[in-house]
Please model this.
Amino acid sequence: MGASRRHVVIQAAAVMAVLLAMPTGVHAQRGGAQPPRPGRAAAAIDLTGYWVAEITEDWRWRMVTPAKGDYQSIPITPAAEKIADAWDPARDEAAGEQCRSYGAPGLMRAPTRLHITWLDDDTLKVEADHGMQARLLRFGTWRSPGGPPTWQGESVARWDRPQGRGAQGGTLVVETTRLRPGYLRKNGVPYSADTRMTEYWDLIAEPSGDQRILLLVIVEDPIYLQQPWIVPVHFKKEADGAKWDPMPCSARW
Model:
C-alpha cells in the first residue's frame, strides 16, 4: 500500500472512531428524525388574548335558560330525553352540581368571554368568565395522570397546517375526553362520561382589522346522542380584558 493511500485509510478510520464515540443524540441530529417542536413554537395561528362569544345562531337556547323539555335540535336518545324531562335546578344545587352545564361541551356554546394564554410551551390555557372555568389544551407527548373525570376533561391538541408551497396559517385540532357527566344545554340535556368532543379552531383576520375565532364543535356520545352533535361557535377578539367579568356557576341562569 502506498504512503498516500495508507494516510487516507488512517484518516477515515479516525473519523469513524470519532463518530462512533458520539452520543446517540448527535446521530439523530445529523440524519434522524428531529424532536417535535413545542406547541407554542409550532403555533400555526395566534389565539392568545381576550375574546367574546358572538351569539349569531340558536339565541333562544344559548342566551337564556330554555324551558324544561326544550331539547329541539339536539339528536338525543330516549334515555337522554327521560333525564332532560326530569331536570330540576334546585336538586342540582342541593347536590353541589350547579356546574353541570359548564363542562366543556356546554361551556363553549355559552355566552362567555375567553382569556387564552400559554401556561407553558406545551399547554394552551383557555379561561372562561362564565362559571370561572379553565381548560388546558396540551400538546406534545403529554399523557393523562389518571384520577377522576372533570368538568373540562382532558384535552390533547395539535396544529393542522395546510399542504402546499407557501401555505400559511392552520387549524388547532383538540380532542377532549374523560369528561365528568354534565349538560349540553342549561335545561338538563345530558352528556355522559363516554363523551368525546372534537374541536377545530380557525382564526379569521378581516380587512377591518377585526379578528374572529371560528370554532366547529363535534360532540359524540354513545349513551345520550343518536348521532354526532355538530355546532359552530364564533368569538370576536377584544382589545383588552376591560369587560372580563368572572361569575360562578349557576344551575338556573
Observations:
- Residues 1-35 form one domain.
- Residues 1-30 have pLDDT under 50 and may be disordered.
- The radius of gyration is 25 Å.
- The chain is about 20% helix and 30% strand.
